[in-house]
Amino acid sequence: MTVINQQKHLNMKFIKNNTTTLLFSLLILAVIGFSSCSQDDEVEVVLKTTEEYKADLSAIISIEKPKVENVQVGYDKGNFKDSLYYFDYKFEYMFALISAEAVLAKTDLTIADIVLANNSLASPGKKFNDMLWISDRRPIHELIVYCDTLRVHTPEGTEPGMVPAEPRNQFIAAISKAKSVRGSSATIDRQVAAAVIELNGELELFEEAIIK
């Protein structure tokens, strides 16, 4: 994994897991001068400066803004899942990012300001990122489209060009199963590949069952 990809991975976890609790804890530490210790060793807490916290949040915003601007509805990895929520979730998150960016531009910026700005990203950021595919669904999607087209143009019957009821119903069930894999948020690349193999097998059986 490259340094850039590692940074992106860490930034995604920051937004999705609401790590602002850490910043909030550090803010408390800065205010009350807290120090912790175990039974054996005393731990010295080293706090970041306001500028360092600002730089951390600025880095996240600089990565998230282009992602929101360029996201498309589709089945590729990183695409948005559902056109129904596309514009609302995109607008809400972009508005939060721009607002947080404006806060960071304040001349009298404080750590408390940064905590609040970061907190403002949590809810819209989670809603947006939860709607992004974690794997590439295009191979199974394209195969489903082909199979659905073939099914529509191959009616049930006993005449040439038709297919008996049993293999046709089996094919319909296979397509439905593949659609479930395509539509599951948890589907990973390995499962996509397995679904493609399985549906291709059902496609071959269906084509063989078409009456010549």
Q: TL;DR?
A:
By secondary structure, the protein is mainly alpha-helical. It has eight helices and two strands. It is 68% helix and 2% strand.
Model description:
This protein is mainly alpha-helical. The chain has 2 domains: 3-129; 138-209, Substrate Binding Domain Of Dnak, Chain:A, Domain 2 (Up-down Bundle). Helices cover 68% and strands 2% of the residues. The protein has 8 helices and 2 strands; from the N terminus they run ααββαααααα. It has a two-stranded antiparallel sheet with strand order 1-2. A hairpin with a 4-residue loop joins strand 1 and strand 2 (42-43). The longest helix has 22 residues, at 83-104. It is elongated. Residues 1-11 and 16-39 have low confidence and may be disordered.
Number of strands: 2
Oligomer: single chain
Across the major sheet, the strand order is 1-2
Q: Ends: how far apart? A: 53 Å
Q: Topology of this protein?
A:
Elements: H1 3-16, H2 20-32, E1 36-37, E2 42-43, H3 50-70, H4 83-104, H5 111-129, H6 138-152, H7 165-183, H8 189-209
Antiparallel strand pairs: 1-2
